[in-house]
Amino acid sequence: MGRADGTERARPGDASRLPTTREEAEAAERDGRRLRFLFFWGSSGDHRPSADGTPGPACLSQWWEAPFTADGHTFPTAEHHMMAHKAWLFGDGETAERVLAARHPGEAKRLGRAVRGFDEEEWRRRRRGIVVCGNLAKFGARADLRSYLLATRHRVLVEASPLDRVWGIGLTADDPDAGSPAAWRGANLLGFALMDVRTALSQRGA
């Protein structure tokens, strides 16, 4: 039975049948499979817990404030982790240090877009793995966030950002096309990366 926050009680086995890419989601749609989506997008500064302190869909955002430590560094958000590792990947240690010192994930993102020595093909090969590693650390460090993510296990996680056609779907959650992967304007890489994280945490018995 679904809850108001989009999570559900776990039923063994369902998660293994979920798509892990947009192409797989489109194929499932063509085959007539009923996919259940959980839309998230931390817009308008909505990157903190609700008044009662419980996490909701916005905690899935890269900009959600939940400091964690990985690879010997502390990251204020998963966005900081992604952009610092982007800089390290291309040997730009100076930008990585500036990302780590950034006070806002938006600043970290801006710095990450200016990484020296950037190679698009290499980034395409490595970006999903980097984001998975960062979010494994983020959700692994906090029991409340981990429990929230695991409770979404029967849902396809979808970043309903109208501004992002790589990590999101290029549509808002209330767009009539948001529930049809074939109509998405973006790849939803973040949503599928978070599903990788969810699977890994579930297999750990977290």
Automatic annotation (TrEMBL):
Catalytic activity: 5-amino-6-(5-phospho-D-ribosylamino)uracil + H2O = 5,6-diaminouracil + D-ribose 5-phosphate; 2,5-diamino-6-hydroxy-4-(5-phosphoribosylamino)-pyrimidine + H2O = 2,5,6-triamino-4-hydroxypyrimidine + D-ribose 5-phosphate
Gene3D superfamilies noted in UniProt: YbiA-like
Domain of life: Bacteria
Spans annotated as Disordered: 1-29
Domain NADAR residue range list: 58-201
Coiled coil: none
Any single Pfam family the record assigns to this protein: NADAR
Alphabetical list of NCBIfam families matching this protein: ribofla_fusion
Name by which UniProt lists this protein: DUF1768 domain-containing protein
Source organism of this protein record: Streptomyces calidiresistens
